[in-house]
Amino acid sequence: MKRFVFGALSALALTSTAALAEYPEKEIQGIIQWGAGGSTDTVMRSVTPHAEAALGGTVVMQNMTGGVGAIALNHVVGEDADGYTLLMGAENPMLYKIMGLGDKDYNDFTPISILARGTPMLVANPDAPYNTYAELMDYIKANPGEVRFGATGPGGLPSVVTAMINTIEGDLDVISVPYDGDGPALTALQGGAIDVMPAVLGAAIEGVRAGKMKPLAVFDVERNEKLPDAPVVTEFNAAFETYLPWGPFFGVFVKNGTPDDVIAKLQAAYAEGAKHPDFVELMDNRGFTMMGISGAEADAFLSKWQQGTAWLLQDAGLAKNSPEEFGIARP
Amino acid sequence: MQHIDPEHHDGTSDATPGGTENMRRPGELIFGVVMLVTSLGLLWSAYGISGFEALSAPGSVPMATTLAMVISAALIVAKTARLPLDTSETLSRDILPGVVLIFAAALVGYGILLKPFGFLPTSALFLIGAIKLLARRGWGWTLTVALSSLIVIWLIFRIVFTVLMPAGIVPEAEFIQFFRDLTNGGDA
Amino acid sequence: MNFLTVFTQPQLLMLVGLGTFAGVYVGAIPGLSVTMAVSILISFTFSWDVYPAISLMIGIYMGGVYGGSRTAILLNIPGAPSAIATALDGYPMAKRGEAGTAIGVTTVMSFIGGFIGIGVLAVAAPVVSDFALKFQPRDYMLLAILGILLVGSLSQGSLLKGIFAGALGIAIGAVGRDPLTFTERFTFDFRLLEGGISFIAVMIGMFGVSEALLQLHHVDKDAVRQKINRIVPSLSTVKKHLPLSLQTSTIGVIIGALPGTGGDIAALMAYDHAKRVTKDPEREFGDGAMEGLIAPETANNSAVGGAFIPMMTLGIPGDAVTAIMIGALFIHGLNPGPMLMIDQPDMFWFIVGALVMANIFMVIFGLTGIKLFTKIVEMPRSVLIPLIMLLSIVGAYAVNNSITDVYWMLGFGVFGYFMRHYGYPLGPVILGVILSRLLDDNWRRAIISEREDLGRFFEGIFTSPLSLVLFIAVILIFVSQTPLWTRGKRMLLGRKSESTSK
């Protein structure tokens, strides 16, 4: 029995060495930074089957949650740089350093594909006494300390959007009520527990279409074709152009040091997967802007994103550590 | 609940926990004191989270709960100390017999070996050892039962539910890919 | 596509059946969760049509919620958090050799509860979801306090030890980075603790490993022979308990429909309710009371229908599984949200039909093969104990693919072993962990919304009818647990110790 097992194992080892040239020779693990059912999960689970087809391999995806995604990131850093462990994440790691959440971020990774980015927007309860961004600003000034904004913790999209508004309009006297994600916060908005929520367009769009929440402003430089009637914030205040377009993004990464041919194969596979019409349609429905970038272009996007956001938070007094400490240059 | 069935005395049903009613079991007081000390440590740690910063501070609820732990643990210790020791029981026979210690050690060993060795060898070792020790039957029987149940568990978790247990020294992923290629080849 | 689609298309019928069958086993194995199974199905059914994919998922969901009761009854290890209360009276029944009866009652009652949940979904979904949306943070907080008061009925022994265990559970739930401010709590600067302790790992350790360690004391004792006649409960039994099952099903639907609470809390609250309203049970609760089995099982299955209510009407998940299903609908090109019912009413009726079918399959698979299941308990302990330990390890790992969780699970297993020996109840620990965030997060949201002003906070409670009702319920239950000072004192100082308290 023992000899049989040993023999079978060594035979296997032989076959696998013989096939070494062909990546992937075994299953690839895809570590998803966020929980099942979230946006990152949905995006990754819908693009990966198309990428698998192009790659000719299997990607076994699993969710590893906790620590705002830092648990998953640190796990992948701890694995071998052989291209058999992929990190599937969102924008959060780029703020870990300044938020004191960890000392690793996407600079320790090579982007396989930055798939898409989202657009933030400001939505309000339909019964709220203001209908546009400008009216909201006036209302806040007239009723200090009364309007309740939803938040998702330091570094989350609402905190960045609020920081932009504070920087441009001067500090707003509002109550910031924390939720653990934009889903629960938008639920609370519909129930009247909060009045205003900065959320990603894709999460709010169905509620807006149904009249369960009203759009105050889309945080972009031009109107979104999914919500053509919703004004963009630059129509109210052109000063926002400095920071926009800005948005959360999704990407697939491997650890630095992964062999170039493996990276090339993965990049080609995900580029192919991201072009699949089903995936494009899904992203379009959720109001995401397709990017599908990799290589130097992705690196440039990441560092620009990090510089802008980190300094914005720093200037708004929300950062725990100064971006300077980590060599993040002021944009 | 007035009558505690002797069968339940060991706490195998959560609804009627173990422990004797009017007696102190061996080690019960020590356990109570350990709980009290731990609770105090946790209360201190909870105070360190945010102090008395605000009602909504992240440390408020932890402080309240650890305070409840300290108070209840202290009352439990006081109450336990007043009870007479149950002399019909001994620590080594009724609370921590050898076989429990062996298994606790085996579980710790399992935890240590799991990552470097991998799931399959560690589990095989554990199951064979445990079943051999408990059942005291022949090697043939032990090996058959242990390995066949391990294979079933592995198939369910690894293949059906794609739970990636640490592979360790066994090239699991290559193995599965090999079979996947084989079946794919068959289909084509 | 409508309500009858599932019944007329053999392919869909088969998939619902297959899903339900698989679900029963997924639910029964601790560590394999419905959430996990459904998220794997998303990848698996990726290229399918949306209807077959949803059929399979609904089957797994229904079967899985029910399946958790199996191991709870047979091994005292709840297969899923929603079956914790089931173990309280189910396992004592198995110890008497009545596992067959217990499973039979559980199955029929789950079926009834399931139907009530689906019925409410079909008839009153918009009304219930409007009601669920009315819950403000302070109402969730009051609900959590109501839940914590359950410690009283979950600690049969010393109430004091129950309070300790419950508080410990809340503290365990707070470990890691606080999700609202990312402040570290109870991490002692260990990076491994930043992600917190998975409560499934705590549950598996406390119930699975500690149970296995305890069983080591009885390795040589013969297993209890199970009587497996009289599996299907008689009509009169069902009739007798119908009022109770209607009440507990209502609890299940409402708790299930609230975003943020699910079948686990529903089942525990229902158990507590049963204990309160059952005047003279044939057997004491905790000793194998039929009511103690009926309440959690009707509630957790009616919570399934409840969880679909906000999902179908508003696109808001009622629990973790419906959250993944919303993702699945997205992937299949639908846009779940308030418009779904208007744009695609077919989808709603299709889901209702699939749920009905899954419920029927559940009763079929539940009542067959019981003989095989009861054989598990009759297995020699020398094999069963190592297998429980191994399954506990794999299960704890599977939750979040983390070895740290395995260590925690083992640690809590040993800890739970001592707790059982010294008369500390384990239920309140799990209850505390489940309710920890509900209580903590919502307390903070509530008080932040009132600008840290306690006066405004209480004003809010007294001016909202919903909050007021919940607040009064909290007070009433608290008082009912301590009706007189003397009795309160007696309970505090432990069971039957009037002599010492004087």
UniProtKB/TrEMBL annotation, chain A:
Coiled coil: none
Domain of life: Bacteria
SUPFAM superfamilies linked to this entry: Periplasmic binding protein-like II
Protein's UniProt keywords contain Lyase: no
InterPro entries assigned: BUG (IPR005064), Bug_dom1 (IPR042100)
Alphabetical keyword list: Signal
Signal peptide: 1-21
Family: Belongs to the UPF0065 (bug) family.
Entry-linked PANTHER family: BLR1237 PROTEIN (PTHR42928:SF5), TRICARBOXYLATE-BINDING PROTEIN (PTHR42928)
Protein name: Tripartite-type tricarboxylate transporter, receptor component TctC
Record organism: Actibacterium pelagium
Lineage of the species this protein comes from: Bacteria, Pseudomonadati, Pseudomonadota, Alphaproteobacteria, Rhodobacterales
UniProtKB/TrEMBL annotation, chain B:
Keywords: Membrane, Transmembrane, Transmembrane helix
Transmembrane segments: 29-49, 61-83, 95-113, 119-135, 147-169
Basic and acidic residues composition-biased segments: 1-12
Limits of the DUF1468 domain: 30-166
UniProt keyword Membrane, yes or no: yes
Segments for region (Disordered): 1-21
Pfam families (alphabetical): TctB (PF07331)
The name this protein goes by in its record: DUF1468 domain-containing protein
Organismal lineage: Bacteria, Pseudomonadati, Pseudomonadota, Alphaproteobacteria, Rhodobacterales
